[in-house]
Write a structure and sequence with these properties.
heterotrimer, A: 272 residues, mainly alpha, MetI-like fold, 12 helices, globular, C: 349 residues, alpha+beta, 6-stranded mixed beta sheet, 8 helices, 23% helix, cell membrane (chain B), cell inner membrane (chain B)
């Protein structure tokens, strides 16, 4: 027993040194003001700033909205791939896997070409109407971030769902259909209960990823959209305000862990 | 299976395409198109050129690619070693201790990467270990971030491993170390390569922690892409993005080849 | 020559006793079958010998050596499990050589010993194959060769035939019997739930039920004169009739039956064990009148379920030209020497 413990300790010690120890230093620094000594001053300063409160609110509502959209969209798309298969459905499922192996900021980059001020959508509009500029300006607003996040995170819902659907015995669907159940009823009564655990797992993952997303927001390049992760970056790197950055980081971790915990409780109550 | 009449099927497929194409297929196509474009001020790009690729495969950009590759390979191998060791060690422990180890190794997933970057920056800019300004601080942060994934996938594979193999080996007189080396690791090989592929992919695309840490002489590709787009050089950024995607996919493909061979033995 | 001895071995998982104070000695060179239904503790007993479960109390001896505290790899035992557990990433020859390499047998001796073990199981041609390229029966032979290659004093077989289909199983049974004749020094502990395997192969059978040893004896003893009702019903599926001991025999449902009472006290309650195949249809000695409850045609035989005095009596008779129908009144009988009187209170499991 002692030998087993000694044997499994080194990797844990390494991780603790490279991760837990730095994290502890972040917490410690968040309680240190510029003049030195332990104080709550960094917290009061950060909480008083409007930029922080704005970023906190944006982070939370963006993550919740992205999670909700991804769940609905991912469920529908996975449903079609699994149960209304078309030629090439397998390739689409494979494409989803490939999609997951690309970094998130590529989506924002692509959206710049699609909906940017000189992008495809506005180009089509100006060519068609002859106006000087197109109507699509949402990319530098939180809505642009939401669109990118929904695009990027939906595959994270689809993958566990497709795995769960492939476990589902299609004979169940055929029996249900032969008993006269309509598709909507089959989805609600047969497929949804089976898919709930996968749906809950995918949703939880998306929630955490969205709360912690950085690349997508950074690439929109909008000064108007700021979330907790980008605030950490700008405070630490652009403003060199380390205590402030540490405070935001602590809040970000607490919000992520807290919301994820809440999500787990709610989804367990809901029977998933 | 679910929808049986023809009209219903077509309606469902139509809705699927309307959602799927613009959301998922279009972005990747657009990046690909942009990487070859000379101008893009109308509906479609024009003035096709390969100049962006010429620029993307020399000088700073080439340096960024090799930086990314070296970082990703080093971080994945380190993460794989630590994660595998951790998962195997945790598996041998009684359940409550295993839970603790599970939580420790999964925690970096829940913590925002930016915060991991900040934490590493704060911790290794001061004694006893000074890494700030070196490439090692980037590699270290990447390793911390991907170790969690290596641990999780190896841990799942260890749980799935039929204990009958180890027991048969032990009954034949093999000591635990021999069983590990000759039986368990070879049987885990497919999962290990899969985990390595995942770690490599994540490290190749890592931006958030890297932005906090990279020294001027160690600029990975995602940072380079950001720098290009931030300066408005979107086409160059696209070409770099295509290079990043291609490199990632090539390595993933090679790993998958090794994996099928390992599984087939 | 190595035997196995269980000395009051108990095993518990989370408060449930799965093996209760097992006392059993397997003589050197003997084939001992551990026979019982699932959950009877037979596999646990075998795994206690192999070292994969730690007894809560009691000692396990292999030969003269107390192995209770030893790790599995220190015990010098050969083992074959239900699903064979052949290493999928190694060729057959490497599988068989595994134990030799692990025990650091000199490198130049290994090929000959691998060949010998494979020859013995008729798999000499297959050394270059991978396990997945073999049929179930061939995998079985490789698993046995792998266990025998290390020349163990003790061979543990855990339901080795249960993954095979019925035809292969009887072939392998004959193979195992031949192997044991060729290797008379190897002590074999054979776990099975199949009475035919136990009766065919074993020198002695230990019958287990609900974590306890119920009965030990040679197959003939257990079949002819089971000591408990569980043995009687599990080995050969006997009729167990509640009877009262009388002066010259026993009374069942108001009928006097002539059987050997073995000096049981007069007036005591007891159980009479009668095998279905010794029960005949029609009049004869020890006649019982009843009504046919059910009848099954089984090819060469008919199985009749006859309700006698509120009990269902099974009779296996040669195929009948004109079988009775359910509800017909019939008479059945059995010879006095074919019945065994058991203690009261024992009932079929």
């Amino acid at each position: 027993m002692v030998r087993r413990l000694a044997w499994s300790l080194p990797p844990a010690v390494l991780l603790a040194a490279a991760f837990l120890y730095p994290l502890a230093l972040v917490v410690r620094q968040s309680f240190q003001s510029d003049t030195g000594g332990t104080s709550l001053k960094p917290y009061t300063a950060v909480f008083a700033s409007a930029a922080f409160r704005q970023a906190l609110w944006t982070t939370v509502w963006l993550a919740l909205a992205a999670t909700a959209c991804c769940l609905v969209l991912g469920f529908f798309l996975a449903l079609v791939i699994a149960f209304v298969p078309f030629p090439g459905a397998k390739a689409v499922a494979r494409f989803v896997d490939v999609f997951l192996s690309f970094p998130s900021f590529l989506i924002t980059l692509a959206l710049l070409f699609l909906y940017g001020s000189v992008g495809m959508a506005n180009g089509l509009w100006t060519e068609a109407t002859g106006e000087a500029s197109g109507p699509f300006h949402f990319l530098t607003t939180p809505w642009g971030v939401l669109l990118a996040e929904v695009t990027y995170f939906t595959p994270f819902v689809m993958r566990p769902l497709l795995a769960a659907f492939s476990q589902l015995d299609t004979a169940q669907l055929e029996v249900a259909a032969s008993l006269g159940a309509r598709p909507a009823r089959i989805v609600r009564r047969v497929i949804l209960p089976e898919a709930l655990p996968a749906l809950a797992a995918g949703g939880g993952l998306v929630l955490v990823l969205a709360l912690n997303e950085f690349g997508i927001v950074l690439f929109t390049g909008a000064k108007g959209v700021s979330t907790l992760p980008t605030l950490v970056y700008s405070k630490a790197i652009l403003e060199s305000d380390y205590p402030g950055a540490c405070v935001v980081a602590v809040v970000n971790v607490l919000v992520s862990v807290g919301l994820y915990g809440l999500y787990r409780v709610v989804s367990r109550r809901a029977g998933a | 299976m679910l929808v049986h009449n023809r009209a219903g099927k077509w309606a469902v497929w139509g809705l699927f395409l309307v959602l799927f194409l613009p959301l998922f297929a279009l972005p990747l196509l657009v990046i690909l198109a942009a990487s070859f474009a000379g101008h893009w001020s109308g509906a479609l790009p024009s003035g096709f050129t390969t100049a962006h690729y010429t620029a993307a495969t020399r000088g700073d950009s080439l340096q960024a690619l090799t930086t990314s590759l070296v970082t990703a390979v080093t971080a994945s191998l380190l993460a794989l070693a630590v994660g595998t060791w951790g998962a195997l060690g945790a598996h041998a422990l009684p359940r409550p201790l295993r839970r603790v180890l599970d939580a420790l190794f999964v925690l970096p997933v829940a913590v925002p990467s930016v915060v991991v970057g900040l934490a590493v920056l704060v911790a290794f800019s001061q004694p006893p270990v000074l890494l700030n300004g070196t490439r090692w601080i980037v590699i270290l942060a990447h390793t911390v971030l991907v170790t969690a994934f290596a641990y999780q996938s190896v841990s799942a594979a260890v749980l799935r491993l039929d204990p009958a193999y180890e027991q048969a080996a032990a009954s034949l007189g093999a000591r635990p170390a021999y069983v590990l080396w000759r039986i368990r690791l070879p049987l885990l090989l497919p999962s290990l390569t899969a985990a390595a592929g995942l770690c490599f992919t994540l490290s190749m695309g890592e931006l958030s922690a890297t932005m906090m840490l990279y020294p001027p002489d160690w600029t990975p590709l995602p940072v380079q892409i950001y720098a290009a787009t931030d300066r408005g050089r979107l086409f160059t950024g696209s070409a770099l993005a295509v290079v990043l995607m291609t490199a990632t996919l090539l390595v993933l493909f090679a790993v998958a080849r090794i994996r099928t061979r390992a599984a087939y033995r | 020559m190595t035997g196995i001895r269980f000395d009051r071995v108990s095993v518990a998982y989370g408060g449930t006793t799965v093996l209760d104070a097992l006392d059993l000695t397997v003589e050197p060179g003997e084939v001992m079958a551990l026979l019982g239904p699932s959950g009877s503790g037979k596999t646990t007993a075998l795994r206690a010998v192999a070292g994969f479960v730690r007894p809560a109390s009691g000692r396990v001896y292999v030969g003269e050596r107390d192995v209770t505290g030893l790790a599995p790899h220190q015990r010098g035992i050969g083992m074959v499990v239900q699903q064979y557990a052949l290493f999928p990433h190694m060729r057959v020859a490497d599988n068989v050589a595994f134990g030799l390499r692990a025990r650091k047998v000199p490198r130049r001796e290994i090929p000959a010993r691998v060949a010998e073990a494979l020859e013995m199981t008729g798999m000499g041609e297959y050394g270059r194959r991978y396990p997945r390229e073999l049929s179930g029966g061939q995998q079985q032979r490789v698993a046995i060769a792998r266990a025998l290659a290390v020349r163990p004093g003790v061979l543990l077989l855990d339901e080795p035939l249960s993954a095979l289909d019925a035809r292969l199983r009887s072939g392998m049974l004959a193979e195992l019997a031949r192997l044991h004749r060729e290797l008379p020094d190897v002590t074999i502990l054979y776990v099975t739930h199949d009475q035919v395997e136990a009766l065919t192969l074993a020198d002695r059978i230990a019958v287990m039920d609900r974590a306890r040893l119920q009965d030990v004896g040679t197959p003939r003893e257990l079949y002819r004169a089971p000591r408990t009702g569980f043995t009687a019903s599990f080995v050969g599926n006997a009729n167990l009739l509640p009877v009262t001991v009388g002066a010259k025999g026993v009374a069942f449902g108001g009928v006097e039956l002539e059987v050997d009472t073995r000096g049981a006290a007069k007036g005591a309650a007891a159980t009479l064990c009668v095998r279905p195949h010794v029960v005949g249809l029609g009049p004869g000695p020890n006649r019982l009148a009843g009504v046919v409850g059910e009848i099954q045609w089984r090819g060469a035989t008919h199985r009749l379920y006859v309700d006698v005095a509120g009990h269902r009596v099974m009779a296996d008779v040669r195929e009948l030209r004109r079988p009775p129908a359910p509800g017909d009144a019939v008479e059945v009988h059995f010879a006095p020497e074919d019945a065994v009187l058991l203690e009261a209170g024992v009932s079929g499991g």
